[in-house]
Amino acid sequence: MTHVVTENCIKCKYTDCVEVCPVDCFHEGPNFLAIDPGECIDCTLCVEECPVSAIFDENDVPAGQEHFLAINAELAQKWPVIDTKKPAPLDATQWDGVPGKLPLLERR
């Protein structure tokens, strides 16, 4: 089992979750975090740390966001591990809860 970062993380990218992860399974991109499904041990510690409720158990991913399972797996292979909390983007609160952010995901 793994946990999955979903759409609400895009452009919010709070990093509170990375500090509690005992296996360093988070990877950082320009405006999103991804969980490596091969590293996640399903401890659930990150779920409550996420201030925008963007992390779910793979079996509880909201309807219509199932594609984030593949997105997390893909991007975790490209991006570096992050294990230290960083300041959130200055406009993070403005993006919390905004629907339809997938086109804004920066994959580089």
Commentary on this structure:
- By secondary structure, the chain is of the alpha+beta class.
- The termini are far apart.
- The chain has one domain (3-81): 2-Layer Sandwich (Alpha-Beta Plaits).
- The longest helix has 11 residues, at 68-78.
- Helices cover 23% and strands 11% of the residues.
- The strands form 2 sheets. A two-stranded antiparallel ribbon has the order 1-4. Strands 2-3 form a two-stranded antiparallel sheet.
- The protein contains 4 helices and 4 strands; from the N terminus they run E-H-E-E-H-E-H-H.
Question: How is this fold's topology laid out?
Answer:
Layout: E1 3-5, H1 16-20, E2 26-28, E3 33-35, H2 45-49, E4 55-57, H3 68-78, H4 92-95
Antiparallel strand pairs: 1-4, 2-3
